[in-house]
Every structure is written in C-alpha cells, then in structure tokens.
Amino acid sequence: MTGTREADPTAPPAQGRGWLRDQVCEGLRDRIITGRLRPGDRLVERDVAEDFGVSRVPVREAIRILIGEGFLQAVSQRRIVVRRMTRQDVENLFDMREALEVLAVRRATEHRTTGHLDTLARLLGEARAATDAGGPERLSRANAAFHGQIVAMSRNELLVTTLESLEGRLRWLFQQVDEPGPLWEEHRLLYEAIAAGDANAAERLALHHVRHYREVALRLLFAD
C-alpha cells in the first residue's frame, strides 16, 4: 500500500491505542469508499502499520471493526481482502434506508427548529457546490452530511445510533450515484417540505428518493 501517513506516530500517549485504531479505521474505510482500495485488494497488517506509522495492534483492531462493518473479509486466518458488495448487500442497505430514513424525515419535520433548518440549508448549499465541482468524494460527503442532519433532527437517539452504524456503507452508496444534478434537486424538494412542516409530503419525497436511487445504484453496480 502507498500513500501519506494518516496517523501521527508521535501522538501523545494520552490519546492511546484507541485513538490510533480509530485513525487507521477511518483511513482504511475512506480508501475503500473512495475506491483507492478496491474489492479483492489484500491488506497485510505489516504494510498497513508501516503506511499509517503505527504498530500492528491498532491495525489489527481496525481490521476487526471493518470486517464487522462489511468492508473487509477474512478469506482465511492470514488473508484479509476488501469485500465485494453483493446485490443482496446493496438491497439490504436500501431496505434499511427505506425503513429508517423515511421515519427520520417525518420526525425531523415534526421537530424542526429554525436552527435545524439553517444548518440543513447550509448543508444543501454545500451539496450544490459539490455537485457543481463534480468531485464524487466531496459530493458523497456532502450528501451524507445532509442526510445526517435530517437524522439528527429526528430527536430519536436509537434511530441516530442505528444509522450511525451504517454511515460508512451509506456514504459508499452515495459514491456510486451518477446523477448528481437530479440528486441535489430531490434534496432541495425534501428540504422545502421539511421547512414547510409538511410531514406527509416530506415522507413521500423521502420514499421516492430512496427507491429512485436504489434503481440507480443497482443499475450501475450490477448492470449484468
């Protein structure tokens, strides 16, 4: 593996192994989401540790987390590879999005505040800028942030926690979208419905949004 080091080997001891593990985990996850690490690529603990400037212990812990998240796969005891998402994996993710994000949109509309809407409008603007710039990585982060704000507005901690556990895989899904203009327009309409307090319209738009991009993602990923 190549690339700049993403964890500081001179980090103060107070930050501890957990901090190093999280840095490695975030770095590897980001490389997988953005395609710098591709399905089937092998990860060797020694090489990853050298690349991030850490010992093999936080690398081992990060790999264990990413296996649990579905990004990595232990082919054998000594062989770890980037996992290839199956059609069923993607269908399952969209099932979760349809069930949870549609609920989050309704609750966000019911609990909206001026502060919430200001933040959501700002994130919508950042997504517009990312759409115009055309960078898929920046765009996926902006869209994930927009959806994350809606979930935070729901005031349902269990819902927030559940979707946080899927955040990496959902950002990977956003990375697959090849219709940034229509995607932003759907977000704009969703924002307007939430801002207007129309929970029924917001829920319908959210459901259409998820189902539309289920079709887009499946077409792009599994054209055969």
Describe the structure.
- The protein has 10 helices and 3 strands.
- The protein is mostly helical.
- It has a 3-stranded antiparallel sheet with strand order 1-3-2.
- Strand 2 and strand 3 form a beta hairpin.
- The longest helix is centred in the middle third of the chain and has 25 residues.
- The N terminus is likely disordered.
Tell me the number of strands.
Answer: 3
Radius of gyration over C-alpha positions, nearest whole angstrom: 19 Å
**Topology order in helix (H) and strand (E) letters:** HEHHEEHHHHHHH
Count of DSSP H/I helices:
10
- Summed over residues and divided by their number, the pLDDT gives a mean of 89
Strand order of the largest sheet: 1-3-2
Instruction: Name the overall outline.
Output: globular
Question: Quaternary arrangement of the chains shown?
Answer: single chain
Briefly characterize the structure.
71% of the residues lie in helices and 5% in strands. It has 10 helices and 3 strands, in the order αβααββααααααα. Strand 2 and strand 3 form a beta hairpin.
